[in-house]
Write a structure and sequence with these properties.
The chain has about 200 residues and is mainly β. It is about 10% helix and about 35% strand. The protein has one domain: Jelly Rolls, CATH 2.60.120.560. The longest helix is centred in the N-terminal third of the chain and has 19 residues.
Length: about 200
């Protein structure tokens, strides 16, 4: 096989692998509007907008936004999402509505913390600091099976089967043995999401 054929084969193999890797994942955000989601507080300030396939929460100084909750509930799953967060901004991606994977614009700090980017809030700091600068998209893959959480952030595994038997704060309820929805924290700071999708796993 000559160099060009080998290169073409490698590209094809990579494309097939990427397609297979996304098999059975279902989009949770359609890129057009917030169908499938609702405000946690229906009377709260709706700071969420959708443009160009991006779901953005804009919280200006002195404002208080509202969390965005998915309509569907899940138990065992792998969820993938991308997010972008300004320096110092604070948000979170909640599993089953009870366990927060922290989102924080902390690139300049270089510090590992339970409340830092990628931390399981109030539970465990990431094993490695992998935050990206403000303005760059960050990729997350989170698997939750029973009460154990594994997180791959920006291509690095930062949590490996961490037990999480209790809600981490700001939860929808305390029913940790029941399925629950994903929700996006919207009351603290500006954050953008895209490509949110989920694969349900066997119970």
């Amino acid at each position: 096989m000559n160099y060009f054929k080998a290169f073409a084969f490698a590209l094809t193999a990579t494309a097939v692998f990427a397609a297979d890797d996304e098999k059975d994942f279902t989009p949770l955000f359609n890129g057009k509007d917030t169908t499938g989601w609702h405000l946690r507080n229906p009377n709260g300030h709706n700071s969420w907008t959708v443009e160009g396939g991006v779901l953005k929460n804009t919280v200006n100084k002195g404002e208080h936004g509202t969390d965005l909750v998915g309509d569907a509930k899940f138990w065992n799953f792998t969820v993938r999402y991308e997010y972008q967060v300004p320096d110092g901004s604070n948000s979170g991606f909640y599993l089953r509505g009870r366990h927060e994977i922290q989102i924080f614009g902390d690139y300049g700090s270089g510090k590992l913390a339970k409340g830092g980017n990628g931390g399981i809030y109030n539970t465990k700091a990431p094993s490695e600091f992998v935050s990206k600068p403000a303005g760059e998209w960050q990729t997350a893959e989170v698997t939750m099976i029973d009460n154990k959480i594994t997180v791959i952030l920006n291509g690095k595994k930062i949590h490996d089967n961490v037990e999480c038997n209790a809600p981490t704060g700001s939860q929808l309820d305390d029913k940790v043995k029941e399925p629950g929805p994903f929700f996006l924290q919207g009351d603290h700071g500006t954050v953008s999401f895209r490509n949110i999708r989920v694969k349900e796993l066997a119970k």
